[in-house]
Automatic annotation (TrEMBL):
It comes from Polarella glacialis (Dinoflagellate). Transmembrane segments: none annotated. Keywords: Repeat, WD repeat. It comes from the Eukaryota. This is Uncharacterized protein. The keyword Isomerase does not apply. InterPro entries: DCAF7-like, WD40/YVTN_repeat-like_dom_sf, WD40_repeat_dom_sf, WD40_rpt. The keyword Membrane does not apply. SMART domains: WD40.
Length: 180
């Protein structure tokens, strides 16, 4: 057709810091919601939640939280196809710990900070960085994490406990993925 353009809208957002990690929400009612993590060369970094303002057609920051070290990965809980309206959204982030965030009513609250080690709470230990993680789309209470300490760890998020930990690599593990 002559004269008809099929231009797709384009949106931009500028952070106050270098952006490193990004994750789009998988919830159908939150199609234009994303999390962005900073990469600042000190311990205090940030995660921002951005949403599209339908009136202004601009991405806006609706929530922000401090994050210890740059988040190596961000990921929203997978959508299981059921009605999620009214339920809080969960976001996972990684650095030296695996962090779970509840995102609700314009606020981010850290609901779990999981160390990739079997040491007891209260014991101080150097925590090696987590390089990546993946959330199971089949069992939403399972999340796998990879680390520079040569381990792959499967977490039970409901119990906030390590389900199993594979220590069979000679070098750092940089990625992990669940299969369908």
């Amino acid at each position: 057709m002559e004269g008809v353009t099929s231009e797709k809208p384009s949106y931009s957002y500028e952070t106050n810091w270098p952006a490193y990690s990004l994750a789009w929400s998988s919830r159908l009612e939150q199609r234009f919601r994303l999390a962005v993590g900073s990469c600042i060369e000190n311990a205090t970094n940030f995660i921002q939640i951005l949403e599209l303002n339908e009136e202004t057609k601009r991405l806006e920051c609706v929530a922000e939280a401090e994050h210890q070290f740059p988040p190596t990965k961000l990921m929203w809980r997978p959508d299981d196809g059921s009605d999620q309206s009214g339920k809080p959204d969960l976001l996972a982030s990684s650095s030296t710990t695996l962090n779970l965030w509840k995102v609700e009513d314009g606020q981010m609250k850290c609901v779990a900070k999981l160390a990739n080690t079997r040491t007891q709470k209260g014991q101080s230990a150097h925590l090696p960085p987590l390089t990546s993680f993946d959330w199971s789309t089949i069992n939403h209470h399972k999340l796998g994490a990879s680390s520079v300490d040569t381990t792959c760890t499967i977490w039970n998020l409901e119990k906030q406990k390590i389900e199993t930990q594979l220590i069979a690599h000679d070098k750092a593990v940089y990625d992990i993925a669940f299969s369908q």
